[in-house]
Amino acid sequence: MMRISFLNIQIDNLTMQEALDEIRSIIESGSPGYVVTPNVDHIIKIENDNDFRQVYQNADLVLTDGKPLIWISRLMGTPIKEKISGSDLFPELCQMAAQKGYKIFLLGAADGIAVKAAENMKTLYQGIQIAGTYSPPFGFEQNIEEINKVIKKVQDTKPDILVVGLGAPKQEKFIYNYLEQLNVPVSLGLGASIDFMAGNIRRAPKWMSELGLEWFYRFLKEPRRLFKRYFIDDFKIFILVWKYRKST
9-12 and 186-189 as β-strands: parallel, antiparallel, unpaired? Predict the structure, then answer.
């Protein structure tokens, strides 16, 4: 497996199929591991968040989520093979799980959304096994009783794959901090993928995704919430490109 330096992280330079093969290997190993899918927002947060950086440094698999990062990698002379966004990876994982008999647990999203996503998964992927679903209350990560409740629900159902949709960096830090207690072969923080699977949020058309405009589609859907992230915070990526380009 080829891991390359990219801006402030290390990335596994893989195709979608290669990533699925690696995830299958992690599952078959039986030891708890986790996958992260960096996008522009993650890269910016990692620069000033040591805890988030540590999560990335210890990940079993680091995949590239977003066309902008693919373009930047080419500009910097270290081209990344393929965009592997969490929302594209999730359906592929479901297909593999149905074929291999892996059990999936869905953790996150608003109340009832994970249950709806699980129902849709059963319709779309014949024979898929859903170990369980749970949507914890907002702020649960500050409450040790709620954390223990989540861990017990996962432990009791013994899933092979844990899909966490709590938003970044909360989901990645939760996986990292409780990896051993959760004891799931592979955990993934996949953001809005549970919402997409439930039909609660619509994904951008494929042509927009291929042109790197998925962020703009999401902005049009939630302009008030996403304006600062996309038009102020994410513009810091240009500073980081300059910084790390100069250091190579």
Answer: unpaired
